[in-house]
Design a protein that fits this description.
41% of the residues lie in helices and 18% in strands. By secondary structure, it is an alpha/beta fold. It binds pyridoxal-5'-phosphate (PLP). Pyridoxal-5'-phosphate (PLP) binds next to helix 3.
């Protein structure tokens, strides 16, 4: 039997209907701005989030890195959570691509407060300190087990950012998961940030692609940076078509993924080798293992039995539900893990 893959929501494969949409896509050279499907996707998502323009990027990493690049100058400082994707999982890109230092905040499952941001800001009159320029918020928070931000705190941070002349970028790789929980409209998030990145290849199930959204001047500059980084693609409407299909068909189903993560959490929390779980709010479940239980060894034991998970730390595992994991698969995972004796 095929393994049940809970390593990430990036592992989804395009559905038959999505492949049909890709097959039918009208295409053109997107570097010339002539791919109608890419243009439609950029307009669609920008409009949805209330931004002027969008830019289709090969990956979420590139969308974030372009954003950081357009907001900063070398030597500037970026404020973000210590577990944030832009700091931890983009191969040092913030430092390498933009020459920025980072000020890391110890958040609560990836969420921090305006007071913590205020503490993190360098005095702009002290010319020996790096110029704080950008605050990056991630929603949902990947390393925080899919935690969702409270808009009230985002608003406090926005007020502070306005007072201090800072820009704000949302790493919204899983923003649709967050909105599925809170019921907030995309425009609510769009209006709080200078730029947003939104991922089509996570929970939405497209094979690739992320969009960077912002005002037209910023996105025009971002287009130049995308080309410079080697991210200008040609007849990429085939991928944009998958994204448009995902937006139409895979957003409303996200609560199913969340319910399945919750079901896993309840069952797995009872196992003797589990110390506890970070209560899942969205589609990411983080398991804290009992003392003496090694995460890498557990991953191997699971793998032998056809369940794939990822290691988050020496005593932590991550399980992610997604489009290719149905209720039956969840029950099978529970049966299999219940039988494991470490
Ligand atoms: C996956 C992810 C990204 C982008 O990752 P890519 O694999 O480069 O598309 C960005 N931010 C967060 C929080 C993510 O989980």
């Amino acid at each position: 039997m095929e393994p049940i893959d809970l390593r990430s929501d990036t592992v989804t494969r395009p559905t038959a209907a999505m492949r049909e949409a890709m097959l039918r896509a009208e295409v053109g050279d997107d570097v010339f701005g002539e791919d109608p499907t890419v243009n439609a996707l950029e307009e669609r998502l920008a409009g949805l989030f209330g931004k002027e323009a969008g830019l289709f990027c090969p990956s979420g990493t590139m969308a974030n890195q372009i954003a950081i690049h357009v907001h900063t100058r070398p030597g500037d400082e970026v404020v973000c959570d210590e577990g944030s994707h832009v700091y931890r999982y983009e191969s040092g890109g913030t430092m390498a691509n933009s020459g920025c230092s980072v000020h890391l905040i110890q958040g609560d499952r990836g969420r921090f407060t305006a007071a913590q941001v205020a503490d993190a800001l360098n005095d702009p009159t002290a010319d020996w300190l790096a110029r704080t320029r950008l605050v990056v918020i991630e929603n949902t928070c990947n390393r925080g087990g899919g935690a969702v931000w409270d808009l009230t705190e985002v608003d406090r941070i926005r007020t502070l950012a306005d007072a201090r002349g800072l820009h704000m970028h949302l790493d919204g790789a899983r923003i649709f998961n967050a909105m599925a929980v809170t019921g907030e409209a995309p425009g609510t998030w769009g209006s709080r940030f200078n730029t947003l990145s939104v991922c089509l290849s996570k929970g939405l199930g497209a094979p690739a692609g992320s969009l960077l959204l912002g005002d037209s001047v910023t996105i025009a500059e971002a287009r130049r940076v995308r080309k410079r980084m080697g991210g200008g693609m040609r007849q990429v409407g085939v991928l944009a078509a998958a994204g448009l299909h995902a937006l139409q068909h895979h957003v409303a189903r996200l609560p199913d993924d969340h319910a399945r993560a919750a079901r896993l959490a309840v069952a797995l929390d009872l196992l003797p080798w589990v110390k506890g779980v970070l209560p899942p709010v969205t589609n990411i479940l983080v398991i804290q293992l009992a003392s003496g239980i090694d995460a890498t060894r557990m991953r191997s034991l699971f793998m032998e039995r056809g369940v794939l998970v990822s290691v988050l730390g020496p005593d932590r595992l991550r399980l992610v539900t997604h489009l290719d994991v149905d209720d039956d698969a969840v029950e099978r995972v529970i049966d299999i893990l219940q039988d494991i004796e470490p």
